[in-house]
Design a protein that fits this description.
The protein is mostly helical. It contains 14 helices and 3 strands.
Amino acid sequence: MITKLATLITDFFMVHLAGELNVSQHTVHSYRDTFKMFLNFSATYLKRTIDRLSIEDLSAEVILPFLNDLETSRGNSVRTRNVRLAAIHSFFRYVLTREPALSALGHRVLAIPFKKNIHDPLGYLSEEELRTLLSEVDRSTTNGERNYVMLALLYDTGARVQELLDLTPTDFRFESPAYVKITGKGRKNRICPLLPQTAKLVAAYLSDQKRTNEDINPLFLNHCGQKLSRFGVRYLLKKYLAGAQQKLPTLGRSGISPHTMRHSKGMHLLQSGLPLIVIKDILGHADVKSTEIYVQIDLEMKRIALEKAGTPSSASKFVRHMTPDLLEWLEAL
């Protein structure tokens, strides 16, 4: 017997996510993993088998312990916890459209807040560090040239790793003005301009591979002829970092990942004087607030530099004048 819960979950994935929203396979897999963990946890928590679970069992009283278990038992970060909760929220928003009678249950679940995440400092590479990293790649081999093009393109476009790996030769225009079409989150396309030297680099790489601009296969392939994976990119970056840090010790710091290349591009664009709204479009941010993090980091760097510079010894001491009435003082701010 097919239960209402099974029907709702099946339709959520097949009809809603794949059919109506046309989300990426990456999103489908993320949501799938969330529900596998959530259903297993719920069955254990309620002491019954998964096929005995009902939609009413997946209440806020079960979801909250599940989220807590992710952090305590599985050691997941707050960010991962929030990703899992976002998947559950998405499911219950769908449930509300299908089953109005479950309105009370759905609204209680949707009222579960995301946990505030304390972000790690935004890391990025200086121009010297970037040059040192790229110089570590041996371009005399076929794989070495592929890796060099990959890292150069990852920086020049500011693309997310998956966006880079999804590129095909057909996405590129090499004539001036050169650009690449990137498919980002939500299947949204954006046009990213390419520096002339990067366009020549990619064109030469394709020519050496005897591939044309009409090739619809992934741009970067592994030794099996399949699309390079995100884990493969991370592995290659760490390999080159290990050698590069011998020349430049600052590259030995923790936290450098493929996404650091994207942050580096954002910071360098800001420091070159490019308007924030333009940087937003290049990086494919949905909201300019996501781009403002680069401004905040840049201002913090300037503040630290000013503090290190110090002040003249003859500078007069600042005296804070307070009025007796604190509320009046606050009102005057």
